[in-house]
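Handout, section 4.2: multi-component inputs.
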Amino acid sequence: MPDYNLSYFYVFVFFAVGALFVTVLLGISKLIAPRKPSLEKSRTYESGEEPVGQAWGRYPSHFYIFALLFVVFDVEVIFLFPWAVLFRSLGWNGLIEMTVFIAILVVGLYYAWRKQVLRWY
Amino acid sequence: MPIGPFGIDPTIWAVLRLVIAVALTIFLVLNGALVQIFLERKIQAVMQDRVGPYHTGPFGLLQTFADAIKLLGKEDIRAKLTDAPFFLAAPAIVFSPMVASFVVLPFGPDFTGVNLNVGLLYLTTLGSMTVLGIVIAGWASNNKYSLMGGLRSAGQLISYEVPGILGLVTVVLYVGSLSMVDITNAQPGPLVNAFILPFAFLTYFIAALAETNRNPFDLPEAESELVAGFLTEYSGMRWGVFFLAEYGEVTVVSAIMATLWFGGWHGPGVDAVPLLGVIWFTLKTYFFVLLFMWIRATLPRLRIDQLMGFCWKVLIPLALVNILLTAVLILAFPDPRLPIAVANWALVALLVVGLPFTQRRRLLRFRTRTRESVGMRDARLAP
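Output:
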């Protein structure tokens, strides 16, 4: 087996062990914990009141706008990583190209800023 | 792979090594959580002029064990309205990436799970998978507090991920590798990256506080307003798994800071005794863990608009400036260490000195606005 695949096999095993560990912990808990379900216990918590409707409703749209901004900047970061590794061999050309790329995104951020998107209320 | 260390066949060694690594990691996670919870309670107690746990065992050392056993023995309550599959899967979704993060941490020379050549990218990826678990937990709980906590957490984590990664990219730029082992090897002497790239460290440190939901960024689980946020509906061991994951997460980000900026396993005497590196690494990691606790005892919680504003209007622009500045200086100078250090420290000074000024201006503007409105009210009320 090549070394490269072996590395990712390790990663996979760690993921699996993490999930397995949680399962085992919860299994132990299930074995030793008491189980006396009642109507009152299985009601959703709402500060001691009867819950009003479900929680799956509307929520502030700020979250959506910030998520959009995040997607833009996260993609930028994905492009920054390989550039940063190969930076020395790319030299000034690479730097200028990356500056243009970042500048375009900064203009976007400035636009969002001026549009009052970054204000929470 | 090493050819037969300890006289063991390489194939068997590969399997054996994996088993040892997994066992050690689980041990570290559990042990780390126990130690950290105990330390956190004791340190908080000392800082707040209390005694802290002291009944169980010497200095209350066994308190955390007692708590763990209590959690295991608690009834597992699940509200009727929850979305069962996701509600049950959420703890594992948060926990499993945290365990997997330990694979690439360089504990000492030749003491790394695997030396992935994309180590840092891998760590950031796993770090953002926590958000997924938290949002799923918040949504599946079908509780208004949980939903708000989950969404706030998502907003906060995705926002602070950007400056955090920008801080990491600056180090990658400077060192030229994503592998955690290479980054450690690049700073053997006392001149660690923290002196050369302090601003990158500052951005990552602040982002790390936010990513691990620690004070002053603990809005997702703000006890006094959201009754524990996305954790409201969780109880017993399911809640305990979230807790374990949170402390594991703190260890991972502390280890990243120790590796990237403070030389990882390097320290006096490591060349002679390689195993000493593990001790140095642990000490450096726990320094940051303790720093997190200190900050928790010192600072009040931020408001959500301050939180988002600080990230998008201050940290991200400055971090971008820092990256471009560092890049230019690396190309312009044959030995760029001093210029980069000067530029970075200047940015740190700008942030530390400038922030109170901008806040003061905002405060003054707010005051005049209030005074005007009060004046208008008085004029209206006047006869």
